[in-house]
Amino acid sequence: MSAKQARAKLCALTVMAKAPRPGAVKTRLSPPVTPSQASDLNVCFLRDTAENIAGVIDGGAAAGLISYTPVGEEALFDGLLPDGFALLLQRGNGFGERLLAATEDVLACGFGSVCLIDGDSPTVPPSAFEQAVRELACPGDRIVVGPAADGGYYLIGLKRAHRTIFEQIAWSTGTVYVDTLKRAREAGLEVVELPLWYDVDDAATLEILKAELLGGIVPHFATQPGYPAPHTREYLRALDSRTKPSLQDVDD
User: Fold this and answer.
1) In angstroms, what is the C-alpha Rg of the chain?
2) Which pLDDT does position 215 carry in this prediction?
3) According to the model, what pLDDT value does residue 249 have?
4) Nearest 5°: CA angle at 68, between 63 and 70?
5) What whole-number distance in Å separates Cα of residue 187 and Cα of residue 58?
């Protein structure tokens, strides 16, 4: 089998990511954390998501990519990704344009399918990624969507670059998922839904993440345990220990 034929059998698990520069990423987490800490968390999210995906890749049916922005910041990803991951520059203006362009560019590389994955959900259960890969390997056109608790989605998987899926969507609102399903139905596409999960993009969802990783409290909407996200867990533990009052503070 040639390299081209082998790639055509793979699903490209592609993380949509901004280069982790303080003040440019996870800005809605500041406060409660500082811009520098928000950037550190972004790095942890990226490392955990990539390592989660790497475990799925070991099954032999997928490959790992990072669709990144902006141009010129490639060095900020050095040392963050598992072996075998490749960088692919994002293009387009609005979010919908970038998602469509990433789909087109990944499929143009010869992959049989693509999953676009957000970088804000470090504890997505590995089984969700595995299910997406399996579904996209089945005969027939379809899309796979992982709904997020805020009304968006943490993953969308396609075999073809369906422009309509990314048009007429009220991006950054609580109707993104519903809008996407509507557009898919209008296009006559089969939709496979993954388990509900959540994005970490504000103080409230950061508390859910802390409860999950530091307290072992599975989110109330979850049907299965999440990925342990060791980099994020250790950073949150260190951050938590620094923000707790010392005994001297209490005595005073």
Assistant:
1) 18
2) 96
3) 39
4) 165
5) 34
Mean pLDDT computed over 186-202? 96
Classify burial at 240, counting beta carbons within 10 Å of its beta carbon; exposed 0-12, middle 13-18, buried 19 or more. Answer: exposed
* Residue 90 Cα to chain centre, angstroms: 15
Return the pLDDT at 251: 39
Indicate the domain borders of the chain: 3-243
Residues in CB range of 86: below 8 A, 6 or more apart: 63, 64, 65, 66
Reply yes or no: is the peptide bond before residue 225 cis, omega within 30 of 0. no
* pTM score: 0.94
CB atoms within 10 A of CB 135: 20
Tokens of 214: 């530091």
Reading the block at residue 7, the tokens are 């790639």
Rounded CA gap, 58 and 73, in Å? 28
pLDDT (average), residues 152-168:
97
Q: Which fold, 3-243?
A: Spore Coat Polysaccharide Biosynthesis Protein SpsA; Chain A (3.90.550)
**2-11, 107-116, 173-182: least confidently modelled range:** 2-11
Tell me the torsion sign for CA atoms 96, 75, 26, 58: positive
In 3D space, the residue among 191, 1, 16 whose CA is nearest the CA of residue 98 turns out to be 16
